C-alpha cells in the first residue's frame, strides 16, 4: 500500500524566531516550480515599537490583521493587547485560499498555497477556519506556519500538526538559515519529482 502523500508542509517555532522570513525565502525559491498563492503576516512597527500586524499577499497587497490601539471605537475581539480586524482579514485572505480546481486544465502547474499563519488571531474568523478545512479536504498542498504551543490546544492546529499527510519543521535560531534549502528540497522532491 502506498504511504500517505505529504500535502501539508508545516513550519513551527517560538514567536519571533523568523518563521515569516523563512517562508518568504522559501517562496522566492519555489516560484520557479509552481504557482504560489497566499499570504504572510508582518509586524507593524512605529518608532521601533510593535503596534500590530498586517496580512500581506504574495503580490504585495496589504490588509490590517490587528492593532494595539485602533483609532476607531468599533468593538473587535482581542488577542492579548491586540484588537483583531476579522473582516479585513477575511477580505484579504479568503480569495487567496480558494482552491483552483485541477480539472480546469490538466496543463495547469501545481499550486501551493502559503498560509502564514494559522493562529489564534486568524482563527477568530470561522470563515478562515472553514477555508483551511476545505483546502485540507481537497488535498491542496499548503505551506503553513503554526504556533509552537498555545495555552489551550487549538483543534484545527493540532489536527494539522498530527495529520498523516503533514510534515512539521521546527525552526530554531541554530537551524533557521539551513532550513530554507532543506524545506525547498523536501517540497520539490515530494510534489514535483515527477515533473
Automatic annotation (TrEMBL):
Residues 5-174 form the AAA+ ATPase domain. InterPro entries: AAA+_ATPase, Nuc-triphosphatase_THEP1, P-loop_NTPase. It holds the Pfam family NTPase_1. GO terms for molecular function: ATP binding; ribonucleoside triphosphate phosphatase activity. Keywords: ATP-binding, Hydrolase, Nucleotide-binding. It comes from the Eukaryota. HAMAP family: NTPase_1. PANTHER family: CANCER-RELATED NUCLEOSIDE-TRIPHOSPHATASE (PTHR43146). This is Uncharacterized protein LOC111597459. It comes from Drosophila hydei (Fruit fly).
